[in-house]
Amino acid sequence: MPDWFFFKDRAGNGYYYDRAFKIRITDEKEFSYEPVSADGIDFYFNTGVDYVKAGRISEGLFYFKSIRLLRSDNMRINRVRNDSTKWINALYKKHGDRFEYADRESTVLLAVNGGVYELVNEKLFYKINFTGRPHVIKNGWKDRYKGYGLKLGINMVSNTATDGYDYMLGIETRIFTNALDSLEEAESVLYGELVYDSLKREQLLRRDDRAVYYYEYESGAPFCGVEALFFNGRIVHLARGICHMELKERVIEEMKKNLTGLVLIK
């Protein structure tokens, strides 16, 4: 840690980075959100069962629901998927309101299909694909379930977090009582609430449901990234990826793919 450097943006987000320009985090979550894969499906299923038996229903649901994201014609995979569904249904019947709370808390799911990491936010209706494993650093509901925050750390090569992250990606979501009329209205509302930095932006993509930008800091801070706003009726997401300028060539195209290719589930 003595060799780490600290940077804080105007939104109050603090980042450490090391001499290799990897972003370091000091407050990672205890639960690791390990990506579920077909190769280890029995282990992941039994891990879910163990969490439920220990009274940690939301963690168990993470595994059961993530298993259901796996795509395969293999009979064993289909059997475990069906068993996961049975556990989910049984928990719903047994726990009622407690299940609803745990189900809401397990909205972030993570699976590996065809070598691609697929992160799904089940309750907020989006999916993002990653080449490197996304590590969930921080997540949770806000303002009585009218908002949600997700912070991820990603490495392009290593699957561990011990070496720091090549880049980070944060997604802030707001849920409105009534659907907004347009992307332009969504931009006005969320940028007014969440954007504090003076950034130099270059538009990469604009459609009816999203606007994506490459950005750098006007202050000359050695960071850059990709920012995107997504409009899905009454749900709006503001995402921002960030990396050190020294790692830009390694990660910026992947970051662009993450956000331009984000799937909004209608």
Can I get a quick summary?
With 266 residues, the protein is α+β, with helices and mostly antiparallel strands.
Overall description:
Helices cover 30% and strands 35% of the residues. By secondary structure, it is α+β, with helices and mostly antiparallel strands. It has 2 domains: 1-9 and 133-266, 3-Layer(aba) Sandwich (Protein Transport Mog1p, Chain A), CATH 3.40.1000; 36-130, no CATH class. The chain has a 7-stranded antiparallel sheet with strand order 7-8-9-13-12-11-10, with helices on both faces. α2 packs antiparallel against α3 (75-95) and α3 packs across α4 (97-105). The longest helix is centred in the N-terminal third of the chain and has 21 residues, at 75-95. The model has no long low-confidence stretch (mean pLDDT 90).
SSE string, helix = H, strand = E? EEEHHHHEEEEEEHEEEEHE
Low-confidence stretches: none
Figure out the total of helices.
Answer: 6
Main CATH class of the largest domain? Alpha Beta
Label the structural class.
alpha+beta
User: Which descriptor suits the 3D outline?
Assistant: globular
Instruction: State the CATH architecture of the largest domain.
Output: 3-Layer(aba) Sandwich
Largest sheet: 7 strands, antiparallel
User: Could you say what the CATH topology of the largest domain is called?
Assistant: Protein Transport Mog1p, Chain A
Percent strand equals 25-35%
Instruction: Give helix % range.
Output: 25-40%
Task: Write out the strand line-up for the largest beta sheet, numbering strands in chain order.
Answer: 7-8-9-13-12-11-10
